[in-house]
Write a structure and sequence with these properties.
The protein is of the alpha/beta class. The protein contains 17 helices and 30 strands. It folds into 2 domains: about 450 residues, ANL, N-terminal domain (Rossmann fold, 3-Layer(aba) Sandwich), CATH 3.40.50; about 120 residues, GMP Synthetase, Chain A, domain 3. The relative contact order is 0.10.
């Protein structure tokens, strides 16, 4: 059944050569569409141009500076082909790794597709990462080429990316730096190593034959941070990955070909790869790319964009929604959001209260919320509502059911299935085309991290519960699940209860050792507004936890902080809080967006 289903989904793409076998091999190294050949760039660009969609807008770009641009599929075709030709002329070959360290600008999309077109492997590095994080990735991939811009713009501030690239590339394998000069601001230029983007494409041919890639050839490497140790270079295939994200995009959001779609994720994260670049462009939709923050120059920024372009599908993170709630719903006033058909949530479990606000105030009580659970390693959505479910089948806070014959189960410590209503470990029993090929250069780590805890199961690392109706509820990372006096409590359970307090914007649980109970926890709380009555709020929080969960859920301490340490995709890094409390090394911070939060938290703890 599985092979038949995925064969039908794969046929929605254009293949240069059809596969000999749908799947082959054993877990965790199953290969998909064996012998099939295709090209990712061709799926996103060429086939739409050939099918008469060349004049259709592929991309609207908006910058916080007020600048805007639009590009048709014909424009995309021209830009991608010229850049691909230029890269080939520089000596980039099939299988080479090209690092992209870029802002949210159109050239970032062109670069991803151009690298894929010539059969090279792209490694996108989030543009707020430090030079050390960038250097680590260059060294790990042995990349010879990097594409960057002179500056990134965020909240009115320009950050010199070229300077960071020069620091990172020093004494590494990097031979050429392709530089997009987007401002008149001066940057250092090395005439031997640096090549201006405009010079490169001006001398390039207008057509570059797309490389025929075997289905299991790597398409990209994307680094994700573990709880400890160096970041993991997650490798994704070409045919399996493209088939999977195309299939899940349609399953979750429906037919979006004739609509305006906007996912707010940065291209430096897997959501940006799967549901900003590949899935929307494969579908031939029109998408929005936004450079900037949701609250800059003011908190109405996103609503203006939705109104301006009549966005139909809006996909964002609970973190962003919570921030907008904190800023006040008055910023929504006067904007016409009636074009919205469906809303989406990604990055972490969405709290029911946040879900309700999103549903009522942004979706006007008519848009279903597609709450998606998945990971960098899975490639695309694993548990998510299907578009046809409608509002009446949704439960606020639940990701609903596994998509597309995914066999997700809740098991105990020994890997045995748990009855409905019991908390346990979330595992996937079968394989799917979007599953990572492994960890770049370290498959032993891949096997140990994802496949060793439970026999023949992909271990997601999340704690979850399935209710009597079969709905899945994600309760947070299982490595961040508390075990207090033998009782397991999910961090999300506690945090969901805490933010029911009308004064609380966000909350995070930090586990600490306890000599008697085994584990205890502290709470880090961000308030919507500063308050003199924190003692009263503490009492209210403790009482709420006692009512919602029980006396066992009483925090050892409650700290009020300005912000929580998070990745750009919105995930709170709770291990950082725990390590700060215990005065331990806080480990790898390469995925942390708001590193300034650390000093504030340290001072509050002191």
């Amino acid at each position: 059944m599985s092979d038949k289903f995925w064969s039908n989904e794969a046929k929605k793409l254009d293949w240069f050569k059809e596969w000999d076998k749908v799947s082959s091999g054993e877990k965790p190294y199953v290969k998909w569409f064996v012998g099939g050949e295709l090209n990712a760039s061709y799926q996103c660009v060429d086939r739409h141009v050939k099918n008469g969609l060349g004049e259709k807008i592929a991309l609207y770009w908006e910058s916080e500076s007020g600048e805007s641009q639009s590009f048709t599929y014909n424009d995309l075709y021209i830009h991608v082909n010229k850049l691909a030709s230029g890269l080939k002329n520089l000596g980039v070959k099939k299988g080479d790794v090209v690092v992209l360290y870029m802002p949210m600008i159109p050239q970032a999309i062109f670069s991803i597709l151009a690298v894929a077109r010539i059969g090279a492997i792209h490694n996108v590095v989030f543009s707020a990462f430090s030079y050390k994080s960038l250097k680590d990735r260059i060294i790990d991939t042995n990349a010879k080429f990097i594409i960057t811009a002179d500056f990134v713009l965020r909240r009115g501030k320009y950050t010199d990316l070229k300077f960071i690239v020069d620091l990172a590339a020093h004494e590494t394998s990097i031979e050429k730096v392709i530089l997009i000069k987007r401002t008149d601001k001066p940057v250092a230029i090395d005439n031997k190593k640096d090549i201006l983007y405009e010079d490169l494409i001006s001398k390039s041919e207008g057509y570059c034959e797309p490389e025929h890639m075997e289905s299991s050839d790597p398409l990209f490497i994307l680094y994700t941070s573990g709880t400890t140790g160096k970041p993991k270079g997650i490798v994704h295939s070409t045919g399996g990955y493209l088939t999977y994200v195309n299939s899940t995009f349609e399953s979750a959001f429906g037919k979006v070909k004739d609509e305006i779609y906007w996912c707010t994720a940065d291209i430096g994260w897997v959501t940006g790869h799967s549901y900003v670049v590949y899935a929307p462009l494969m579908s031939g939709t029109t998408m929005i790319l936004h450079e900037g923050a949701p609250d800059y120059p003011d908190p109405s920024t996103w609503w203006k964009i939705i109104q301006k372009y009549k966005v139909s599908v809006f996909y964002t993170s609970p973190t962003a929604i919570r921030m907008l709630i904190k800023l006040g719903q008055e910023w929504l006033s006067g904007f016409d959001l009636s074009s919205l058909r469906v809303l989406g949530s990604v990055g972490e479990a969405i709290n029911p209260d946040v879900w309700q606000w999103f549903f009522e105030h942004v979706g006007n009580k008519k848009c279903p919320i597609i709450d998606t659970w998945w990971q960098t390693e899975t490639g695309g959505f694993m548990i998510s509502p299907k578009r046809e479910y409608g509002i009446e089948k949704l439960k606020p806070g639940s990701a609903t059911f596994p998509l597309n014959i995914i066999d997700a189960q809740i098991v105990d410590e020994h890997g045995l299935p748990l009855p409905d209503g019991y908390k346990g470990y979330l595992v996937i029993k079968n394989c799917w085309p979007g599953l990572t090929l492994g960890i770049w250069g370290d498959n032993k780590r891949y096997e140990e991290t994802y496949w060793s805890k439970f026999k023949d199961c992909y271990y997601a690392g999340d704690f979850a519960i399935k209710d009597k109706d079969g709905y899945f509820w994600i309760l947070g990372r299982s490595d961040e699940t508390l075990n207090i006096a033998g009782h397991r409590i999910g961090t999300a359970e506690i945090e969901n209860a805490v933010i029911k307090n009308h004064m609380v914007a966000e909350a995070a649980v930090a586990a600490v050792p306890d000599k008697i109970k085994g584990q205890d926890f502290a709470l880090f709380v961000v308030l919507k507004t500063q308050s003199e009555n924190t003692d009263i709020i503490k009492t209210e929080i403790i009482n709420t936890l006692k009512i919602e969960i029980g006396a066992l859920a009483k925090p050892g301490k409650i700290y009020f902080v300005d912000s929580l340490p998070k990745t750009r995709s919105g995930k709170i890094i709770r291990r950082v809080l725990s390590n700060l409390l215990q005065k331990q090394d806080i480990g790898d911070l390469s995925t942390l967006e708001n590193i300034s939060a650390i000093e504030n938290i340290k001072s509050v703890i002191r």
